[in-house]
Amino acid sequence: MQDMATVFNTFPVLETERCTLRAVTPDDAPAIFHIWNDARVTRYIGRPPMVSMDEALKRVDVFRTTFEEQTGVCWAIDHGGQVVGTFVFWNLEKEHFRAEIGYVLAPEWWGKGLMIEVARAALRFGFTDMGLHRIEAQVDPENAASRRVVEKLGFVQEGHFRDYYYDPVEARFTGNAVFALLKPSWLRRTEADAGGLRGVPPEAEF
Ligand SMILES: CC(C)(COP(=O)(O)OP(=O)(O)OC[C@H]1O[C@@H](n2cnc3c(N)ncnc32)[C@H](O)[C@@H]1OP(=O)(O)O)[C@@H](O)C(=O)NCCC(=O)NCCS
Asked: Per the structure, how many domains does the chain have?
């Protein structure tokens, strides 16, 4: 299996049609704050909206430390010089070739296909350069946009944990839909897309 250590030598910058995925810097704190200060963004994430720039700076620090400690890769989504969101691989389990994804976009950029575009580039990096075998996503079952994103990418839902998290903002329990995409399935879809068969349905893998 691939040695993942080399991935962490230099921060990987990825280019998509409309965006650059790059390392988050302290200068991005105002943009991070703008995104996470919006209740529409945090609604299904189980955290209250950020209320101070200090929280944004701490988040930047977590993003940077994640890469330094080799427990994930956190990208700023840079669109024409403006940070419009973040995409992360976290909870990296190197020995099991597995990681989880997390993503947010500022609401003014929703519905333009940006997250699908960004996620495709990040998944390619995860399965090829990082050598991951399994990529997971945990989604609030009520988060229709996020469910649609992972389903479009070919993730298969493997479980639905009822009342898994307590959301203090809305004072209610929320479920957790666990999705995963395996490398062989991703490869099949990628090859089918290249051959003009875009939209091949995900296969039942278990
Ligand atoms: C989830 C999120 C990143 C989606 O980003 P986006 O760039 O708007 O998504 P895309 O434009 O790439 O759309 C992907 C698909 O989802 C669909 N979609 C978008 N919003 C939707 C909604 N509210 N309900 C149902 N489907 C939706 C789109 O129509 C598209 O499907 P289609 O191509 O078949 O039409 C964005 O809504 C977001 O940042 N939400 C808040 C943070 C969050 O919940 N993150 C995920 C935590 S698990």
From this structure: 1
pLDDT tens per residue across span 138-169: 999 999 999 999 999 999 999 999 999 998 88
Within-domain flag for 151? yes
Our answer on whether the CB atom of 183 is closer than 6 Å to any ligand 1 atom is no
> What range defines the domain where residue 75 resides?
11-194
Residue 201 domain flag: no
The CB of 105 under 6 Å from ligand 1? The reply is yes
Q: Do 121 and 14 contact (CB within 8 A), yes or no?
A: yes
In this structure, what CATH number is given to the domain that contains residue 135? Answer: 3.40.630.30
Q: Is residue 25 part of a domain?
A: yes
Task: Give the global pTM.
Answer: 0.94
**Interval between CA 155 and ligand 1 midpoint (Å):** 15
Ligand 1 atom 26: the closest Cα is on which residue? 145
Ligand 1: does its nearest atom lie under 6 Å from the Cβ of 104? yes
Q: What angle do CA 162, 88, 157 make, to 5 degrees?
A: 35
39 lines ligand 1 (CB under 6 A): no
